[in-house]
Specification:
The complex is a heterodimer of chains A (81) and B (506). Helix content of chain A is 60%, strand content 0%. Chain A has helices at 3-17, 39-53, 59-64, 68-80. Chain B has 506 residues and is of the alpha/beta class. In chain B, strands 11-12-13-14-15 form a 5-stranded mixed sheet. In chain B, strands 16, 17, 18, 19 and 20 form a 5-stranded antiparallel sheet that branches. A 4-stranded parallel sheet of chain B has the order 4-3-5-6, sandwiched between helices. In chain B, helix 1 packs across helix 2 and helix 8 packs across helix 9 (245-251). The longest helix of chain B has 17 residues, at 31-47. Chain B is globular, with a radius of gyration of 23 Å. The N and C termini of chain B lie far apart (62 Å). Classes of the chains: A mainly alpha (81), B alpha/beta (506). The A-B interface holds A 19, 30-32, 35-40, 42-43, 58-60, 62-63, 66 and B 222-227, 230-231, 246, 250-251, 253-254, 257-258, 406, 440, 442, 462, 467-468, 470, 472-473.
């Protein structure tokens, strides 16, 4: 899956987790910009991403994520390895 | 009698001027830095005629100026009133008005501070560019009745409720923590500071280290809290970690990756602590003394403690929750039940740690505070508890609609009050807490009618309530289920929501 496809699938994950069908995310989107993005939503989003993309993240990998772009790159790297 | 809240800090600054006092995202400030900055801000406060008994608002930002401002305010004999940066302007205006604040300090919250100042006559002062001075912090000697801080918690009538804590209580708290011999904190200790300054455990997390010559490590507050906590615990080699249990609930999937041998004290407060999660967490902090601490804001941070032993089984009567233990110095606890033979009832607290009233609110004061036959004031916590044979208090739940979500104290009636305001109060509403998994709580708001404009209601609530009080979901309900007393059956709502039932058909 290339990064554009990951981005598309990730958008649907975010819309599902945040219960906002029209939610748009970009590589630059961070937790501070999405009102509903709290600790619980974050862990639910990570769990959903792991399930959707069949990958598993370590705590250190999750801690390093600064924005959605980092998450796309991490998923891509996991799937490529 | 006079007491000094800050004398220990001033002594530490004199003796350890070059030692680190506070470390923000890798930038360290020494005791000399903090003392010099506090002294400079205190001078500014004097120039603005801040005097003993005044209340000064302060935006709860994660900056060295914020902590220096608190020390400066206390040094003048004034009280600090933290304002959450994520509070809507209307909520901070309510606090400003109720507390009688005429000066607000901030580091970088210019827009929020200006919004408060506009039209209220309140002055906003930015502390970012105040330069430290060489003078030591000159602190007054407090009288027992001096107000030290005023914290506003969620109130059931739509306005925040002020809890005043006076010097007699804050002094008793510091004595209890520092002089009882229970905790052997040293200047080498590194304290985690994960709390918003509007939440009183923050005082433990910064004032206790500053009173023993140790250092504290606030979170950057730029990302997700539990991840920032994990990062600071590990990279800064924290030795004293007071946390809300929600943090370890969220970190549980990653316990296998967390090795924190430097933690000497792993302390929990703010909400119910699950035995199973704590048992798993214990392996992450193999050398730590582990305690469950209890204390409502009205009783000055913490007042009961339970020392948890590694390998101990779940308490047979605790329903999976770790006991809150026995009272510490400065407080007595008793359980009040209408039936004197009952062993379960409302936990009540008496002593120097306990404040005597709410701020400017006689009716709430009358409801929550009383006077016993000996003339002592006591506080009814609203916590349903029982005592076991060993004398440990067990927390069983609430007797009212107050809930804790991620450690935040929330009156569900506060949410309902503001939700009712939309559509001219024509719709009935009910806010409940749903637990999707053990330890993970969310607020769900049910609103009468099948034509509920949930986005509009959510937007309205965001203009009245802080982010942590916004319901996760707004659910239309055709007709509310009623219990045998004719009141909304909240348990039935939660059950049907959990089952994923069609709420509109209820």
């Amino acid at each position: 899956m290339d990064k554009n496809d990951i981005n598309l699938t990730l958008t649907s994950v975010f819309q599902r987790v945040f219960q906002e069908p029209g939610l748009a995310v970009t590589r630059e989107t961070t937790a501070r910009e999405v009102a509903k993005w709290d600790s619980l939503r974050h862990i639910e989003m990570i769990t959903d991403v792991e399930s959707t993309f069949a990958v598993k993240f370590s705590l250190r990998e999750v801690m390093k994520l600064k924005n959605v772009g980092d998450l796309i790159d991490l998923i891509h790297a996991k799937q490529s390895s | 009698m006079e007491i000094s809240i800050l004398s220990r800090f001033v002594d530490c600054a004199d003796r350890h001027a070059d030692r680190p006092a506070a470390v923000f995202a890798g930038r360290s400030y020494t005791y000399g830095d903090l003392s010099g900055l506090s002294a400079a801000i205190a001078t500014t406060l004097w120039q603005h005629n801040v005097r003993r008994g005044d209340r000064v608002g302060i935006f709860a930002e994660s900056s060295v100026q914020t902590y220096a401002s608190i020390l400066a305010i206390l040094s003048c004999g004034a009280a600090y009133v933290p304002l959450r940066t994520d509070n809507p302007v209307a909520r901070n205006l309510d606090i400003l008005s109720d507390a009688g604040i005429r000066l607000v300090l901030h580091t970088d919250a210019e827009a929020a501070a200006s919004a408060l100042a506009a039209g209220t006559g309140c002055e906003a002062v930015q502390t970012r560019n105040i330069a430290p001075i060489a003078d030591r912090l000159n602190t007054i000697r407090h009288r027992p009745t001096d107000l030290c801080y005023l914290l506003f918690t969620s109130g059931s009538t739509g306005k925040p409720k002020g809890v005043p804590i006076y010097a007699t209580s804050l002094s008793a708290f510091l004595d209890m923590i520092l002089e009882s011999g229970r905790y052997a904190f040293t200047p080498q200790d590194r304290f985690l500071q994960m709390f918003d300054l509007a939440f009183d455990p923050s005082i433990f997390a910064f004032l206790v280290p500053l009173s023993v010559g140790a250092s504290f490590y606030p979170l950057p507050r730029k990302s997700i809290t539990y991840l920032e906590v994990a990062d600071v615990l590990e990279t800064q080699q924290i030795s004293v970690a007071m946390m809300v249990p929600s943090v370890i609930n969220y970190l549980k999937p990653y316990f296998g990756e967390l090795e924190l041998p430097h933690v000497r004290y792993s302390l929990f407060c703010g909400e119910a602590l699950r035995h199973d999660t704590l048992s798993a967490w214990a392996a992450c902090v193999p050398h730590a003394k582990i305690e469950n601490l209890y204390g409502p804001t009205e009783a000055t941070i913490v007042c009961l403690r339970y020392e948890w032993q590694r390998g101990e089984p779940p308490h047979p009567q605790g329903k999976g929750i770790v006991p809150i233990g026995t009272p510490m110095e400065g407080v007595q606890a008793f359980i009040h039940a209408d039936d004197s033979a009952a062993d379960t009832g409302e936990l009540c607290l008496i002593g120097d740690l306990v404040t005597t009233s709410y701020w400017n609110d006689p009716s709430k004061t009358a409801a929550a505070f009383g006077t016993n036959e000996a003339g002592q004031r006591f506080y009814r916590t609203g916590d349903l508890c029982r005592r076991d044979q060993a004398g440990n208090v067990l927390y069983l739940g609430r007797i009212d609609s107050q809930v804790k979500v991620d450690g935040h104290r929330i009156e569900l009636e506060d949410i309902e009050f503001h939700a009712r305001a939309i559509d001219n109060g024509d719709r009935e509403v009910a806010a409940v807490v749903h637990s999707s998994e053990p330890g993970r709580h969310v607020i769900v708001l049910f609103v009468e009618g099948e034509d509920v404009d949930a986005p509009r209601l959510c937007d309205h609530l965001r203009t009245r309530l802080p982010g942590y009080m916004i319901p996760r979901e707004i659910v239309p309900v055709g007709r509310f289920p009623l219990n045998s007393n004719g009141k909304i059956d909240r348990a039935a709502l939660v059950t049907r929501y959990a089952a994923g039932g069609a709420m509109a058909a209820v």
